[in-house]
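To whoever is on call:

I kicked off a structure prediction for a single chain this morning and the downstream step that reads the tokens threw a length-mismatch warning. I double-checked the sequence; it's 361 residues and nothing unusual in it as far as I can see. Pasting both halves so you can look.
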Amino acid sequence: MRIGSPKEIKNNENRIGLTPDSVKALINDGHEVFIESEAGDGIGCFDDHYKDVGADIVSLESLYNNSELIIKVKEPTREEHNLLNSDHILFTYLHLAGNKQLSLDLVKTGVTGIAYETVTSDNGNLPLLSPMSKIAGQLAFLVGSYNLLSQNKGIGKLLGFDGQFDLGTVTVIGAGAAGEQSISMAIRNGAKVNIVDLSEDKLNKLKQRFGEKNIRYIKSTETSILEAVRETDLLIGAVYLVGKSAPKVITRQMIKEMPSGGVFVDISIDQGGCGESSKPTTHDQPTYLIDDVVHYCVTNMPGSVPVTSTFALNKATLPYIRSLAKNGLEKALSEDPGFKDGLNIQNGMIVHKSVRESLGI
């Protein structure tokens, strides 16, 4: 199969779909691989590194003209839609539920789209979403702490500094892969932590893992979230529903109840955001103020650590890419029901049930 990996063009996005090691594996499997010139520069993987393992270094147009399978990281921008057609299989994060019009425009290209974020494993986990969720969860605590600094319009607290002072409070809504990482970071830094989730079973498991010192385990309701948010310095939204827009569990009223100078980090923003006051931002302009609360809503958070993110993502995606390239679309998906869950777009239609429901189709 002819496989291409282009340069990402989203703001401050330096990840790439294929590392030189992944390219080498695919070429050893007998496939032809095209890499857009300078696509890997942002992670220190230069054109010569790709040439050394047998890749063809080409222009953007040549890559799309010659490739059957396109491996990306982020969803195609509107500018990239013109490059896609019915001859292409696109394997990337699609996040269709986050932008209905952009999704419908992508469907019109005729491309077959497989989304990393809806591929499942035998136990129901999300093996291709999990690595980036874990990275985003750690970053959420880091950027949240940074934006609590007074020069960033934050309240001016150092979380977990000393038991003799106010330790500061971190509230994490959603205890999935991203949320767990934020929780771990907050606990390790000595802050008070509110963990909010719908699942009592999950809360109990986290209680067994982390104990109860300076930690509250809260069953998610509108009332319980509001009570937790009132005392929160750093609020992290980590709500995710497979293939669906994130529910708006953090209302504007809750934001108003936060202390002036508090910070809200919405990890769910690439699925539309879990806050009513959330709107997508970029790494160039990552924050904005609403009701004196700093909002951080960058849609490609892991892009700020592209070396770590690219290699973690490739480790997860390469087995699926090899299967797709070896077996072709129909056989690869029919032999792995979890891989088939990743199929979002085919024959000019959105075919994933949850995505269709989320978009009202």
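Update from on-call: the warning came from a stale cache, not from the record. Cleared it. Sanity check on the structure: The CA atoms of residues 99 and 272 lie 7 Å apart.
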